[in-house]
């Protein structure tokens, strides 16, 4: 052991001496001048889009100071209520799976940045929330979901104050009805069982489009691949040539398998292929996109505006899918939609689950021109006690009517609000 240390010490000394001698006796090679960074024309355009306001504050003649933002539990449901100094209120109902885990972040790291501020400056407040208290170090789904629910409550508040639906506040309503696709959440069942399930979804809603899942979620195996290869032709054969069919792999494949499955999807005229590779495997996803003709969809896990810019700048996504909660709300997502529009591609948002996610999608779709032909719909599976005067909030013949009332345009069962208990601390 002693001899080994002596050898290493001698070798290190010799190396250092040789290095010094080399430096003294030889002229250092010239270094290439650093290349100046020049953003692409696309990227420069995206940066300009991000700076353009989404909320039309001209529809609100007077300041709307936020007096309080509170979290409540009402039975199995949770909601956030924003109240102005004048007593106007706005409500967002949250997915109980999320709120149970992230409400301390909302209470301690999100809400304080909005209090006693003018709600008409919503976009600036969201940016300040991100930068304040070093919250940028907390960037991720848990942080941005909290911001999204606070934003939605404030948008409902601003709608109540202005008498305008959310779509009018966010650039102007461009449609009153939205065509939907029903998404199956199944994996592991047989192709025949999944086909029966898809047929039930179509029958119940009248939807002209469906989405089913491939792979085994973030992985694949022999059984899942066998199912995939049987299900793809079965769905097309059963639904016919006129049906629009989407698929979601939830990041199941490596590049080789993603391309193999993608070519089969192309053979059966599939309209888009969502997340063929893991969501953060960007180079792999690009390799798949470059090898296939089928449009690649993705973005539901993204929380970074700059990352969305990169994905679009490199022509990886043909359908852009910010999740309206994961990405931090409607105003941020509309900026992504505008970037996509500048490239002539669709922004079809992802809907993360339950509560009133379907309603938030409807208001997004009401004011975004380039949403694509069909929007993801999961319905009021949590049975939130809510209604609208001008919409039954359910699709008829595959089309759902967007409420036109102020804010979210819905009315909550009075007991849902009055019997709620406030959550005040962790």
What does this structure look like?
With 426 residues, the chain is of the alpha/beta class. The chain has 14 helices and 15 strands. Helix 3 (96-110) packs across helix 5 (141-162) and helix 9 (255-267) packs parallel to helix 10. Strands 4, 5, 6, 7, 8, 9, 10, 11 and 13 form a nine-stranded mixed beta sheet that branches. The longest helix is centred in the first third of the chain and has 24 residues, at 2-25. Residues 1-25 have low confidence and may be disordered. It starts with a helix and ends with a strand. Helix 10 (282-291) links the parallel strand 7 (272-274) and strand 8 (296-298).
Quickly describe the structure:
This protein has 426 residues and is α/β, with parallel strands linked by helices. 42% of the residues lie in helices and 15% in strands. Strands 4, 5, 6, 7, 8, 9, 10, 11 and 13 form a nine-stranded mixed sheet that branches.
Helix and strand arrangement:
Blueprint: H1 2-25, H2 41-51, E1 66-74, E2 77-84, E3 89-94, H3 96-110, H4 122-131, H5 141-162, H6 166-169, E4 177-183, H7 191-205, E5 209-213, H8 222-239, E6 244-248, H9 255-267, E7 272-274, H10 282-291, E8 296-298, H11 305-313, E9 319-320, H12 330-343, E10 346-347, H13 357-367, E11 375-377, E12 386-387, E13 399-401, E14 411-412, H14 414-418, E15 421-423
Helix pairs in contact: 2-12, 3-5, 7-8, 9-10, 11-12
């Amino acid at each position: 052991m002693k001899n080994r240390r002596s050898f290493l010490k001698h070798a290190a000394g010799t190396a250092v001496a040789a290095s010094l001698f080399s430096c003294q006796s030889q002229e250092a090679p010239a270094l290439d001048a650093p290349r100046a960074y020049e953003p692409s024309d696309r990227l420069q355009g995206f940066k300009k889009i991000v700076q353009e306001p989404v909320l039309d504050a001209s529809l609100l003649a007077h300041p709307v100071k936020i007096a309080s933002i509170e979290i409540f539990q009402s039975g199995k449901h949770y909601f956030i209520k924003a109240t102005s100094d004048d007593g106007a209120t706005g409500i967002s109902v949250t997915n109980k799976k999320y709120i149970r885990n992230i409400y301390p972040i909302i209470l301690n790291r999100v809400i304080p940045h909005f209090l006693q501020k003018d709600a008409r400056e919503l976009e600036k407040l969201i940016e300040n929330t991100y930068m304040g208290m070093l919250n940028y170090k907390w960037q991720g789904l848990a942080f941005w979901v909290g911001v999204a629910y606070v934003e939605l409550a404030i948008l409902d508040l601003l709608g109540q104050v202005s008498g305008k639906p959310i779509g009018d506040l966010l650039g102007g309503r461009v449609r009153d009805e939205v065509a939907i696709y029903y998404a199956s959440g199944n994996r592991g069942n047989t192709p025949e069982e999944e086909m029966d399930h898809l047929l039930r979804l179509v029958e119940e809603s009248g939807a002209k489009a469906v989405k089913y899942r491939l792979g085994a979620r973030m992985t694949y195996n022999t059984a899942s691949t066998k199912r995939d290869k049987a299900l793809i032709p079965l769905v097309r054969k059963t639904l016919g040539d006129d049906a629009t069919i989407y698929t979601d792999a939830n990041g199941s494949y490596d590049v080789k398998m993603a391309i193999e499955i993608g070519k089969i999807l192309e053979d059966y005229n599939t309209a888009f292929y969502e997340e063929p590779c893991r969501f953060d495997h960007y180079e792999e996803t690009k390799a798949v996109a470059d090898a296939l003709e089928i449009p690649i969809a993705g973005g539901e896990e993204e929380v970074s505006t700059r990352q969305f810019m990169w994905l679009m700048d490199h022509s990886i996504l043909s359908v852009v899918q910010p999740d309206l909660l994961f990405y931090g709300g409607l105003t941020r997502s509309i900026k992504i939609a505008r970037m996509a529009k500048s490239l002539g591609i669709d922004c079809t948002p992802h809907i993360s689950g339950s509560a009133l996610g379907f309603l938030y999608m409807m208001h997004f779709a009401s004011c975004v021109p380039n949403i694509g032909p069909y929007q993801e719909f999961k319905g009021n599976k949590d049975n939130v006690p809510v209604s609208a005067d001008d919409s039954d909030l359910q699709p008829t013949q595959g089309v759902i009517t967007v409420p036109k009332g102020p804010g979210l345009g819905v009315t909550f069962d009075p007991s849902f609000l009055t019997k709620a208990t406030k959550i005040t601390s962790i």
